[in-house]
Amino acid sequence: MKNIYKSALKFSLCMLPIGIIGGVLIGMHNIATLDEEMINQILSQMSKEVYIMVSGIQTGILYTGIMGFLGYILADKVNLLKKLTFTKRSTLITLFISIIVGLLLLSDYFFFAKVIPEVAASYTKDSYSPIYLAVSVIYGGVIEEIMMRLFFMSLAAFIFWKLFARSKEKENIPVWVFVVANIVSALLFAAGHIPATIATFGGLNTFILIRCFLLNGIFGMVFGWLYRKLGLQYAMMAHALAHVIHHVILLYLLL
């Protein structure tokens, strides 16, 4: 038991610098892209530098440090913890899924942008900066996977297992527990994007809300499946690479 706590601490400490970098990047991105009213509200409370520093510390300590530590322990309790190594077969599977997800994300440009004016207005070349890509890869690919898959999905699986499953051995946890946990965490993942959606489009309507849950919820379940079947590192890889593929193709289309 002591070994798992030591391993969890080691994992969270390794992820901590990535969390701080991701938090700093998202703070910089917010300062550069939020509307003037929201920026003024932030700057009335603190300077840009302090806001960015606070964003980095909060993301590093809370999301990758604490949630990484607790998620690692929870994953072990529900038998979701896998060796953080890479195999050729699993990597190829993940690369294939990354390409599919990256291409499917383009449905936002080819479909939702055609029926939602606010989405169409967001597709400009200036919207896709190097910082935005870095935020998508580091914050989305690493930090969100620690939060939503390692922590929330493992926690949901633990709760459903303890409350509703007959078997109390972690090796015999029913498949439905993980399926439901994946759905719940994917819905939370989608809901977690609502504040950013409001900030981007200046509000919500039915179509924008449906878009938010479809794009983030469905792909969240794909990453959850990878986490369960192959391991957290593959969910991170797929999430990050899908953003890279999506961004590269969009830049080509918008040039």
TrEMBL record:
Residues 130-244 form the CAAX prenyl protease 2/Lysostaphin resistance protein A-like domain. It is an enzyme of class 3 (hydrolase). This is CPBP family intramembrane glutamic endopeptidase. The chain crosses the membrane at residues 12-31, 51-72, 92-111, 131-161, 173-194, 206-227. It comes from the Bacteria. InterPro entries: Rce1/LyrA-like_dom. Keywords: Hydrolase, Membrane, Transmembrane, Transmembrane helix. The keyword Methyltransferase does not apply. One of its GO terms (molecular function) is hydrolase activity. The keyword Transmembrane helix applies. Its EC number is 3.4.-.-. It holds the Pfam family Rce1-like.
